[in-house]
Amino acid sequence: MSLLEIEKLSLDIAGMPILKGMDLAIDAGEVMGLVGESGSGKSMTALTVMQLLPNASRTRGRVTFDGIDILSAPEAAMCRLRGDDIGMVFQEPMTALNPVKTIGEQVAEGIRWHTGANRPDAEARARAILDRVGLPEARFPLSRYPHELSGGQRQRVIIAIACALKPKLLIADEPTTALDVVLQKQILELLRDLVDENRMGLLLISHDLAVVADMADRVTIMRHGEVMEASETAKILTQQKHPYTRQLAEASVHVPVRNAPSRSGSAGVAGRGGAHEDPSFPPPPGPAGHPPHKGEGKSAPLLVVEGVTRDYAGRRKSLFSKAEPFRAVDNVSFSLDAGQSMALVGRSGCGKSTLARMILALDRPTSGEIRLLGQTVADKSEAELRPSRREMQVVFQDPYGSFDPRHKVERLIAEPLHLLEKKPARTERREMVAEALHEVGLAPSDMDKYPHEFSGGQRQRISIARAIITRPKLIVADEPVSALDVSIRAQVLDLFADLNQRLGVAYLFITHDLTVARAITDQVMVMHEGKIVEEGRTSEVLDNPQTEAARALVAAAPDLERAIARRLGETA
Amino acid sequence: MTMPASSQPDDFRHFLHQALRSGSFMTGLIITLLIAAMAALSFIWTPYDVTNLVVANRMQGLSAAHPFGTDHLGRDILSMIMVGSRNSIAVAIVAVGIGMGIGVPLGCWAAARGGWLDEVLMRFNDVVFAFPALLSAIMITAIFGPGAVNAIIAIGIFNVPVFARVARAGALALWPREFILAARAAGKGKALITIEHILPNIASILLVQGTIQFALGILAEAGLSYLGLGAQPPMPSWGRMLFDAQTRMMIAPNQAIFPGLAIVITVLGLNLLGDGLRDILDPRLRRER
Amino acid sequence: MTAYLFKRLAIALATLIVASVVVFAVLEVLPGDPARIMLGMNASPEALESLREQMGMNQPLITRYLNWISGMAIGDFGRSYTYSSPVIELIAERITVSLPLAIMSLLLSTIIAIPVGIFAASRRGKLADTISMGAAQVGVAVPNFWFALLLIYIFAVALRLVPAGGFPGWGDWWQALKALILPAVALALPQAAILARVTRSAMLDVLGEDYIRTAHAKGMPRHIVLWRHALRNAMIPVLTVLGLQFAFLLAGTIIIENVFYLPGLGRLVFQAITQRDLIVVEGVVMLLVASVVAVNLIVDLLYAVVDPRLRAR
């Protein structure tokens, strides 16, 4: 008999069907990967097993854990199971720990409750498990508070809480989604070791097929509350019998079709707007026409960043000492040619978003200079910035936070038209918005809707439509596909590639995801602790990284093909 | 899975649907409308003339002719409550207007500008908050003379920092949002962004705070009138009626009970309205019900 | 921690100084001649002149302000014009009524409100929640002086359990306590209604946090999660409101002391205003403002006790 058996489980929340007759079984010591896109019901499956569902939930079917019928177990019995026989790790480490209690208290609490141990014994056990998850006493005494730890360290504390009593089953719900790739690798390795050591069953929930392929013995693929396919990992991923499995697998390794990457020099011409002549849509007038190139032969770069540094006021150590400033961006220089697609990759907190904001003139460098088309963008008034702002636009990560929820799509997309010297009349404006919507694959009729009427992927298209409406030469995209499901992500990447080809717009693509960088950029820069440590052609840098920071990123990046190859090697 | 971040005020049908299902909103709305109707009616009709003193009718209990009885000067209590509502409502409305009119621009400005200006404005707020509101109102009315106008100013001044704080907190939460950054990338200045994006998005919390301050204004006006610093006789006011009734509490409790109930019902109605509005306008708070 | 402490202390001091300038300006500069205000319109020129002399009015404004503020720093609040005694003595006498009253009502309101708020939050949506929050909703709407009148009518007039007003002094502490009980209840209940609502909503906010789910996933039963994990986090907004309520309470004493004829600071300042005894008004107002500032400073320090993130600063 399996450790956990879910049979024909259906779940309604406030009348909304979430799960529809799903089945799943995990044996002791087995790693089960549960994969699905957002809304597939994978998290709710975990909460059903824990019996931590919202109040308005109704369940049918059978869930048996270790011979106990979970669905009919009284709350007191569930309290005995939770944290003792079943441990759970959540997605968001930043908010999952109580901010006013020390990590020692939080780990020891469950130990005391379940074993009845006295305080010193429980603290000794808490100490041991914290050491085990990589938080040694010297740097992480029990008296530390959560706010003194980083996201990765907090996730280790949560794993310590979940594994303190060596549960028979560990449930990990997207345990690494909020972390960067390097941390993701470390946490996954920790989970795998803990599971091996204690012969725990692991239910690993993830949207990322590559992560699961690497970790799981068996995989269950879910969609809309139903199981699509379930089998051994190697089998499911090599055979890809079910069309949805195939779709997921293809989407996660998707590379948009692109012509040979436009290299600097020759690409400059394509980007000047002349290459893409559309009689119905004249490009907006630039500042006194397009600035002529000074150089003979080789055109000047589109964007030049020279020795840019950004310091933030640090925290004062004591009342009288001066605060040590924190250097977010440290003497960064690079240039980007017209039509070029450049990736800026690095771990979270490496300064890549700060750099992007300075390029967009949303933040000012402490020192250094940024020039777009020869015009400096720092230290200018909004009015003086207008010509530059017309030439660069932005696409953000969060498809929900990118729009004023109170404005209709027409007004949202038309917002950058504010930058034009001559404001278009209403009909002209609607035409321009319709054109932009058409460019990103949406219908002109969508302009009269509100953003909340669209899905995440459609919103990201609207975001792109807003970015291209002034026909800029540069789009800075800050993690534009990280919040999207894999199948949607593939479509949006296609759109980015397509616009690059057709409009000749250059990209600065900020991402922590090397698959994305590889998919649509020609050049890549690796950023580490505020500095650019490596740059070059994307394929060269990613295939053969030279610096340690770049090597760590490449080694940690989950790779579906590599994982499948490894699985096949094991079974063969 | 993901809920829209905010409701659509333009989607009026959606609002109406939610409003009709919210018990506290509808109760509050009905009470508020009834009180407002009573105040409006008092301009054209009251059961008795409140300026006409009929000493022969003084100190009557409840009767069909005088449902709430009469006071020590023979005036009909019901009529006085009706006329008194005008004063309460007028003082509270203007005081909220003063608070919003000055406080909201200050708060938005502080949030947009940041830095030392923000610090100065917030420290100024601290100073105003350090004065117990009623104490300062008493000082102001005592120095500049009692009366409805000075009461309005006194109560209004203390609404300014309240609205400034609410507006600033709301605006500060919006400024780092991506849609504001996108507006900045579209070359819009801070003033324009405040008008186009910030104000519409904090309107609902301001509206809710407005109903709360309105209710507090009515309580404060009653307090000032009770101390003899609000509306002056012969203009009837609820607080003044309570003061007059106090000494005759043991022989004619009705003279104190009904004006007090008028205050309680009005304030209760406004608070219910505010609670209901908050639930409808802010889906994040809805789960608290 | 020290930086946070010093910043709060500096802000409190700055607030006090600005407040003193405001009080000085409002009472001595804005309305024209203070001597005339104090003596009334029909005062003789000689009387006006001698009062001006006594108040130091003939000195420059700055000197007068500095004299006033430095006098207060050493406990010299000046001399009351109407009572012909030092203001500090008046304050010392009246504070024995107001301070116990304020403490009693603050305690009463806290003791009632916080358990009710927690209870309602833990029973959210159930009958007990609906009833207690309905009562709180009404309580918020009740003016405290009207509530005081009802209390007098029921407990003093009809039941004759306690006196209807006046204060016998602390010679007989039992009688003194009996005289303060109704005023304290009248002040406390409307405040308790507000506090209970705040406590409930703060608890509900916290109960929706991720770390509450973590605690449940650890196997902790509901009541332990509520007391050990939720309550301490919910205390932060509750403390804020408690600090604000202290100012309301002080203002409330002005009315309530008038309703019950209690010889406290609120009645003193109210009478001083109507009698135009500006020196008393200045002294008492500054004292009340200082106590509000002090209470808010204490609240700031309590934040740091509750929240380790503030201690780190």
Distance between the termini of chain B: 21 Å
Overall strand count of chain A:
20
* Residue fraction in strands of chain B: under 5%
CATH class of the largest domain in chain A: Alpha Beta
Molecular shape of chain B: elongated
- Helix-strand makeup class of chain B: mainly alpha
**How many domain modules of chain A?**
2
**The CATH topology of the domain at 91-284 in chain B:** MetI-like fold
State the oligomer. heterotrimer
Rg result of chain B = 22 Å
CA radius of gyration of chain A:
26 Å
CATH architecture of the domain at 91-284 in chain B: Orthogonal Bundle
Summary of the model, kept short:
The complex is a heterotrimer of chains A (572), B (289) and C (313). Chain B has 289 residues and is mainly α.
Structure explained in plain terms:
The complex is a heterotrimer of chains A (572), B (289) and C (313). Chain A has 572 residues and is of the alpha/beta class. Chain A has two domains: 4-252, Rossmann fold (3-Layer(aba) Sandwich); 299-565, 3-Layer(aba) Sandwich (Rossmann fold). Chain A is 36% helix and 22% strand. In chain A, the strands form four sheets. In chain A, strands 6-7-8-3-9-10 form a six-stranded mixed sheet, with helices on both faces. Chain A is globular and about 75 Å long. Chain A starts with a strand and ends with a helix. Residues 261-297 of chain A have low confidence and may be disordered. Chain B contains eleven helices and no strands. Chain B is 73% helix and 0% strand. Chain B is elongated, with a radius of gyration of 22 Å. Chain B is mostly helical and 289 residues long. Chain B has a domain at 91-284: Orthogonal Bundle (MetI-like fold). Chain C folds into two domains: 2-85, no CATH class; 88-312, Orthogonal Bundle (MetI-like fold), CATH 1.10.3720.10. Helices cover 79% and strands 0% of the residues of chain C. Chain C has helices spanning 2-29, 34-39, 45-55, 61-73, 87-122, 127-141, 144-158, 173-207, 210-217, 222-259, 265-274, 278-306, 308-311. In chain C, helix 5 (87-122) runs antiparallel to helix 10 (222-259) and helix 10 (222-259) packs antiparallel against helix 12 (278-306). The longest helix of chain C has 38 residues, at 222-259. Chain C is globular, with a radius of gyration of 24 Å. The mean pLDDT of chain C is 87.
